[in-house]
Structures are given as C-alpha cells and as structure tokens.
Design brief:
By secondary structure, the protein is α/β, with parallel strands linked by helices. The protein is built from 24 helices and 37 strands. The chain is 30% helix and 21% strand. The strands form 9 sheets. The protein has an 8-stranded parallel sheet with strand order 26-25-24-23-22-21-20-27. Helix 19 links the parallel strand 24 and strand 25. Helix 4 packs across helix 8. The longest helix has 20 residues. It is flat, with a radius of gyration of 31 Å. The two termini are 31 Å apart. Bound molecules: pyridoxal-5'-phosphate.
Length: 767
C-alpha cells in the first residue's frame, strides 16, 4: 500500500467522530488491519475490524506499541492512549471502504471487474497474461474477492499502471450494489452464473439482475459462453459482448470447457483493449494451468474418484463431466448423484445435462439408502446435495492406503472453538493448547488450522514443539509451559515465550538474555494456587516482582495458574479458592508493574463451569475436540476425532480351539473372527483383551477375543455377515472417546494422546 493522504481527509471520509488527541496534520501512508504485519506503524491508521474469532479492538495496544497513533473504532476503549486519535464510526469495514473508494477515484485508467459462479480466478489470471504484453497491469491477489478483499485490492492501485483487474466474489444479495459503488468498474466480466443449484432452484432472471448490478456504470460488459440464452432480455440495449469460442478459433493446449471459456473471455477483453492478435497468440502456450478445482484420487475397486461434492451448482456439473471425459480415456464413466429427497424435477434436469456425455452408468443415491451397487475399474464422478452428505461417501470410496487411521474433522474443531468463544467475554483472548501432538490430532496440521481461523495464542508443553511449529511457518505467539534451561536459546531464536515458574529458572533465562543482548523478552509467570505442581507460590510474589522490576531484559506478557478440579461442579469451593488466590496475585503484581499483562486460569472445563471477570485469556484443550464432562454443555460440541480400520481377514474357529498369545481365549462353540490391524502398539490398550473392549462393525459391537497383540486384534463377528476390507470403527458414532477411555480404565486425555504416531492422520474440512 502506498498512500499519501492526510489524517483529516480520512476523518472526513469516515464520517466519524474524533476522540482524543487530533494532530493538525498527519501523513498517512498505509491502512492496517492486522498488527502482525505491521513493522513500523508511524504513518499507519489501524482499523479495528470485527472478525469471527477476533475483534480488532483488542489489538489497539499492540498497534500503538508499533507506533500507530490513529485508530478507526466502533467502540471506545475504557482508557484512551496518550497522543492517540480515535475515530469513532458505526462500521469500521465501511469506513475502510470509504477510503478505498476515495483512493480508487484518484485513478482514471480502466478497471476491469470479474465476477461469476466459476472461473473467476482463471479468467483474471489469463487476461492478465494477455494484457501484460502491452500494458502495466495490477491485479487483485487470489481470494481477495470479499467485501474486505476488494477494498484492500483497490488500495493497492497506483500511478505506475495502466489497467487494473479486480476479482469480486458472488456474495449475499444486496452486496453487489455496495461493491459497484466501491469499484465503479469500466469493464465488466461475468464468467458464468449458477442458475440452478442442487439444493434449490433460483430464479435465473433475479440472479442475473443481482450480479449485473456490479456493472451498472460499466462501458462494456463481457459475458461468458452460453450466457446469451439465459434470459438476458432485460439487458437489451446494454453494450453487452458475448465471448464465444469456436473449436477452430485457436489451438488451445487444453480441452475442457472451463479452460476454453476462460480463454474465450480473456481474448475478447484483450482484443477490445487493443492487444495485438499476435501477442495473444504467442501468449496462449504460456498460460499457467491453475490448480484443478476437482479433487481426484484413487478409489477402492480400481476406480478413479472425482470428488465434486463441494460444488452444488448444476451448471458446473457440465464442467465436471467434461473433466471426467478428459481423464477417462477408454475407461467406463460413472456418475453418482446424491439427493436428499426424491425430487424428480432435479433428476430430469440432471439427465438433460448428462445426456450428451453418454455416461456408462448413473446411480442416484437417496439420503436414507445404503448404496447397493458396486463399481469397478471406472472413473467415478460424485456429486450431491449438502444434506445427502455425499462428501462422507466420497471419502469412503477413497482407497485407504492406511488401513488404520484417525480422521480429524477440522470443521468440527472450528465449531467447538466458536462455542467456547461465545461463552467468554468478547475481548477475552483464546489460547489453544496443542501439546502432545495437539491431543493426538497432529501438531502441525491442527495448529496451522487454528492459526488460520484466527485464534490468538498457542500453548505447547516443550520448546521442541514450538520450534517444529515455527519451522512449519506458524507465526502465532506460542507459550511454552515447561521451558528448561537447555531450551532457552531456542526460545529466543524462534520467538517462543517461556513460562517461568521458579527463581532458578528465571535467573538462567536472564543469563541467556543478557548474553544475547535482548530486551523486553516476553515471559509468562506461572503461579501454583493449589495444584502443587510447577509454579511460584503466592508468598513469593513480592520477591519475584522485585527481581523482575530491575530486569529490562524481560517483559511480563501474562500471569497464569491452573485449576485442579475445574470439572467438579458439585463442590466448587476448591476451584473458587484457587480463582480468588489467583486474582489477588494478579492484582498485587499489577500494582507493582506498570505495563498491563494477560491473566489466565480457566481451561476448557473451567470456562464452562466457572467464570472470572478478571481473566483476559482462556486456555482451551480437550474441549476443542468435543470432550466435556458437563453433559449439558457437551450437546453444543461436535466430535472431532474418529478412529477407523478395516478387516484384514476372516477366520472360522472351531469349538475348543484357542485364539492368540497365551491361548487366553478358548472358543465355547464354533465362531467367526475378524482380524484387524490394530494393537497396543497403536494405542489400543491390552487391557481391552478378551471382551473387556471391542470395536463396532456395521454398527454392532464386536468384542475382542484373546489378548490384544502389538499390531493386531481379533474380534468376534459370528453374528454378522462381513467381508475382508469392511470398515471398523474404534472411535466414532457408536463408540465415543469417553466410552472407550472408560473401558480402558483411563480418561479421554490419555486415550487421545496415546494413539500412536504410526496411525495415519487424515483431515476433513467441510468448507
Ligand atoms: C493442558 C493444559 C490446559 C488445557 O486443559 P484442558 O483441560 O484440556 O482444557 C490448560 N492449561 C494448562 C496449564 C495445561 O497444561
């Protein structure tokens, strides 16, 4: 961003009320919405935007510390910072858009806005390639097509270019009008429009009208192939240009409809902007292939699966079928459609679309039915309504290279975190504990997801875990609970924030910091308020603060403690005492040190069962994974972890024969057993031997027979009709983590963190 605008112009444009110190003049060069990306904020204005997890207002201090002195807010903080200007507005996003619009109006080169239900990014990128042969082009970054993203893209406009390409997402009704006012595109591109949706039919004309509002003042509008016969009559008289491709138009290096139509549009627009034909021709072979939208993988029974369950658009079905043709060669092509009710009109529409493709087979699956067909050696395209849950189905058809695996549902994790977020005060920060491989869910993937959705802090047990996270690119602040002296240099190098719990440890850290010439290194003071584990005792507070006050090398980022029985709601007295002691300690420290620090004592159960208006951060662990001993609360949570395997082999055991090591089980009659590649080496404890535990197959409990081995178990399946390869549930819908852990005579924490690292982790994200 390279602005040069006076603060007073911003104040005027924001239509806000100023509070605090207002300088006569102040040059603004950038607008900031994320303090992590701020280096020196002297010439920045910070916009406190409202996110799902985060409220920008909580980062004002941080921005201030980085030099920012002007803040756009929708509510004022309790105490105003010195020399700071607050501009109070109703909606901080709208205020940001106002500046973006003002900035956009400084430039009168053409702005091309691109929207549509599919193909926006490809079209924009390819148009960029054509135009760049003649012009200096600026284009919005990928996925910057939301209300906020478009504003940020516009703020990037500068004099050193001749044309700008802005991608605009299909958003909620009514939003296009706002986007139009903001962008005022000179040229409009509508790539495609989802006129029919598997889940509901929409009125084509209404949809078109909504989208086209974006181009209300455009001099020229380009429509993607096929859009001419889509009820555009209301556009008559508008300067509409249709971008049609013909097969012999050009020698394209790709054959699918989606790529062809993107090229057709890009060529039409480039030609309109007077890019010479020979430039276009030369550029075509250089066009980058964008990542295929369709997920394709090896399936069971030698099938290739095209998973298109994320897109419910019926028009996109054509593109998917085209893609299927392009990879099928001579193999049979099958379409599986999942519907949630018997809707014949949708089916007719589907058949009309599929008819020209001459599929070898079309299977329709309804929500309630178990699929009863087998498909082999084919290229299978899977699509369906959201309610029909076809995504789960598509996953089931995936060839499982890992017979035993756990599945982590990231959408459920996000859901659970949002539930906790709703329980705490809106300014309370959230730290998610990812110690012990994020409770067994896998350290890196889980932490990366948590960072992406906007959680404030991560917590780990050891510095090594923090180093691993940093190496994987995680930037969130990380609290290290057991930071040992050997790890201090790593903490310094990788910006990990150690927990300090003893004077010896504090002294050792100071030595390292002094040796490395560090100042204000963030630390977290850990107090023991009743757990009798690591931590300073409350009687040491004074002495501790005396030491810290004389040491500029360190900065108290937070003070915290841990509850011993936060799940005990029957007798809360111990916990209340702990919270009380903790509050006293914090208040005492705050009297002695000038800088504010975070206070945190509540873990997952603590958040649900107790509250303390004094805490400014909470530490969530097991609750994020859907586990709570509070039965009422648990109903709000979704399970995150499923543990699955498959049957390796079936065997008949005659009456009197024994099974497994030590021959601990002798068949009382003839039985059928299934052998499953799962043992105590995976975390399926030996205590579960001989019927003490078991697994679920076809929703039926199958007890273990014989002892659990290191890599295998045997279970009784006499009453079932099963085959090798059938799915086995160890943790899932029928056997939850709580149930299995109690069979193991332990707690969910131990079960989850005890699932061995050799068990493959796969991640599901429904969005
Ligand atoms: C593990 C841990 C947590 C998280 O506890 P849950 O009960 O899993 O929510 C919080 N704080 C500390 C200090 C921890 O060690």
């Amino acid at each position: 961003m390279n602005l040069a605008i006076d603060l007073h112009t911003i104040i005027d444009l924001s239509k806000g009320e100023t509070v605090g110190f207002v300088p006569k003049k102040h040059l603004v060069k950038a607008l900031s919405i994320d303090t992590r990306k701020l280096v020196s904020g002297e010439h920045s204005v910070f916009y406190a935007l409202q996110g799902e997890f985060k409220d920008g207002h909580a980062f004002i201090q941080d921005a201030y510390d980085k030099g920012v002195r002007a803040f756009i807010v929708s509510s004022l903080p309790k105490t105003l910072l010195k020399q700071a200007t607050y501009i109070l507005v109703k909606n901080t996003l709208y205020a940001l858009q106002a500046i973006a619009k003002h900035h956009r109006d400084q430039f009168n080169y053409p702005i091309v806005a691109i929207t549509g239900s599919v193909g926006k990014t490809t079209t924009k990128e390819w148009l960029y390639y054509f135009l760049a042969t003649k012009f200096r082009v600026i284009r919005s970054p990928k996925s910057y097509n939301s209300q906020l993203g478009v504003a940020l893209s516009l703020l990037e406009l500068n004099q050193d270019c001749d044309i700008a390409l802005i991608e605009v997402g299909i958003s909620a009704p009514g939003e296009m009008e706002r986007q139009e006012k903001l962008i005022r595109p000179d040229i409009g591109i509508l790539t495609a429009i989802g006129t029919a949706h598997l889940d509901n039919f929409s009125d084509v004309t209404e949809l078109c009208k909504e989208k086209i509002q974006l181009f209300a003042h455009a001099k020229k509008i380009f429509l993607g192939p096929g859009l001419n016969n889509r009820g555009w009559s209301f556009l008559k008289g508008d300067p509409v240009e249709l971008s049609e491709y013909t097969n012999d138009m050009l020698e394209l290096p790709f054959g699918d409809i989606a790529s062809k139509s993107a090229t057709a549009i890009a060529i039409s627009v480039a030609t309109y902007l007077k890019v010479p034909a020979q430039n276009i021709k030369k550029t075509i072979p250089l066009l980058p292939r964008l990542a295929m939208r369709l997920e394709t993988y090896e399936g069971v029974n030698n099938n290739t699966i095209i998973n298109d369950t994320y897109n419910l658009d019926l028009d996109a079905l054509k593109h998917s079928l085209e893609f299927q043709v392009s990879i099928a060669k001579n193999r049979p092509r099958v379409l599986i459609i999942g519907l949630h009710d018997k809707n014949t009109s949708i089916l007719e529409k589907i058949y009309a679309i599929t008819q020209p493709f001459q599929l070898d087979k079309i299977e329709v699956v309804y929500l309630s039915e178990e699929p009863s067909f087998t498909i082999e050696n084919s290229v299978v395209l899977i699509k369906g309504t959201r309610k029909a849950n076809m995504q789960k189905w598509a996953m089931q058809l995936k060839l499982k290279k890992h017979k035993t695996q756990i599945e982590i549902n990231l959408s459920a994790l996000r859901h659970n975190l949002l539930q906790y977020k709703e329980l705490v005060d809106k300014n309370t920060k959230m730290l998610v504990m990812v110690k012990a491989q994020a409770y067994g869910s896998g350290l890196i993937k889980t932490a990366q997801f948590i960072e992406k959705i906007g959680i404030d802090y991560l917590g780990v047990a050891y510095a090594d875990e923090g180093v691993e996270l940093r190496k994987a690119g995680v930037l969130l602040p990380i609290l290290v609970m057991n930071a040992e002296e050997e790890a201090f240099d790593d903490c310094i190098q990788y910006k990990l924030e150690p927990s300090i719990y003893s004077f010896e440890q504090l002294e050792a850290l100071l030595h390292h910091l002094i040796a490395q010439n560090k100042e204000a290194f963030p630390i977290h003071l850990k107090f023991d308020t009743g757990m009798n584990r690591l931590g300073f005792s409350s009687t040491e507070t004074r002495k501790l603060i005396d030491v810290i006050r004389s040491q500029p090398e360190i900065l108290i980022k937070s003070v915290y403690s841990h509850l011993a029985e936060s799940d005990n709601r029957k007798d809360p007295s111990f916990t209340l005492r702990q919270i009380e002691t903790f509050t006293q300690i914090c208040n005492q420290i705050q009297k002695m040190v000038p800088t504010p620090f975070l206070r945190h004592i509540l873990n997952s159960e603590g958040i649900v069962n107790f509250s303390s208006d004094q805490t400014t951060m909470v530490r969530i662990g097991i609750g994020a994974f859907g586990i709570s001993s509070n039965e009422i609360w648990r109903k709000n949570l979704r399970p995150v972890i499923a543990w699955k395997s498959t049957i390796s082999q079936l065997k008949t055991v005659e009456k009197g024969e024994s099974i497994g090591y030590n021959r601990s089980f002798v068949a009382p009659q003839k039985i059928t057993i299934a052998i499953i590649p799962l043992g105590y080496g995976d975390g399926f404890r030996r205590i579960l031997s001989n019927g003490k535990g078991g697994v679920f197959i076809q929703g039926v409990f199958c007890p273990t027979v014989g002892n659990v081995c290191m890599d295998m178990i045997m279970v009784d399946v006499s009453h079932l009709s099963v085959q090798a390869g059938d799915e086995v549930e160890i943790i899932g819908q029928h056997q939850g983590i709580e149930a299995l852990s109690s069979l193991m005579e332990t707690i969910p924490y131990e079960l989850m963190t005890g699932i061995s690292q050799r068990v493959y982790r796969s991640y599901i994200n429904e969005e």
